[in-house]
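Input record (one chain):
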Amino acid sequence: MQKRISALSVLHFVVDTYALMIPALWLPVQHKFGLTPSETGLVLGICTLTFNLMQPLWGILSDRFDARWAISGGPLIAVAGVGLAIISPILPLTVLWFLIGGIGIGIFHPEAGVTATRLGRLGSSRTMGIFLVGGFLGQAFGPWWISIVLTNWTGAAMIGTMTMLPGIVLAIIGMAMFGRPLERDKHVHEEDRVLWRQAIAGRHRPIWTLLAVNVTRYFSLFIILFSVPMYLEKAGHGQMMVGQWIGIFLAAQGVGLLLGGVTAGLNQERSTCIASTAAGLIPLILLPFLSGTAALVCMIAAGVIIAWAHAVVIQLGQGILPHCQRWVTGILIGFASGIVTLISPQLVGWLFENVSVQAPFVAAAVFGVAALIATLLLPSQATLDALRDT
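The corresponding structure, as predicted from the sequence alone:
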């Protein structure tokens, strides 16, 4: 099992490497096609539709049909789509290739997330933490790697080849390590499968509150993420610095995920979420008043602390809705981040154009406060435990 979860983490690394190249491409896309910051935010938000906002659809299809192929096919589609988007000469074709690559990213996450849970031990977030940390490390690698490619190579053929090479190699390694896909959930018989609308009956408050928790937490993180390119350009830095800062910020979230997966167990989800969200407010409030290295350190602290409870939230949702695990995984990861990645780039661009370079960081702190309020609205731990056991 350890080999399989390691392989799943490698494949998650590949998928999220290419998903998170998109924020690092803010300045290249803006300059290549002559866009304003608001227009750039709109374009990049649209590019994420198929792998974020549509992820619940992929989850529903995966729950209803056999989608085990998505674990191996998703990463390959992601690598090809994003790699071709980067070298496309016209904006509509760039968006189209990003959307195709996004389908690979979107179909991978629900199936792989449930597989990670099945490979783990009941009551432990460790396996989910390992799976998620692979994704966040990929997100850290992606911006750094694409910045190296764009800085050191020229020509569409060379840029495309160097962009896709690590993804293809690692995808092949991950597929070889994982081996044959797991059999479908044998303990859930066909007659026991239910529509998500039936499964969620009596569980509306915890599920939608968990969604609100993740949406507001994601807003804090993604507003910071999309602010980095313009913040650093304003300070006189180039693409390599953008890739490094984004990579470091996302690696910090990977560390938080790993620590959260190791330390958080069953019957502690509510307190873990509250503690993580409350502690994350400290760096979020300080960030608008800092600059340079101090700002980067604050971003690192926010990334580690806020990501601490991420694996716990997902496994709690899967436990509350055991018959629709792929759907709820898609809701809590894909749909939540989809709302955020559609809105936050435009919000960041507008605030940068019309208010100030620090205004997006203030907005991130406001969403941090909203996340704490949403977390406090979760049902009691006893109620959550009872819903999981029924």
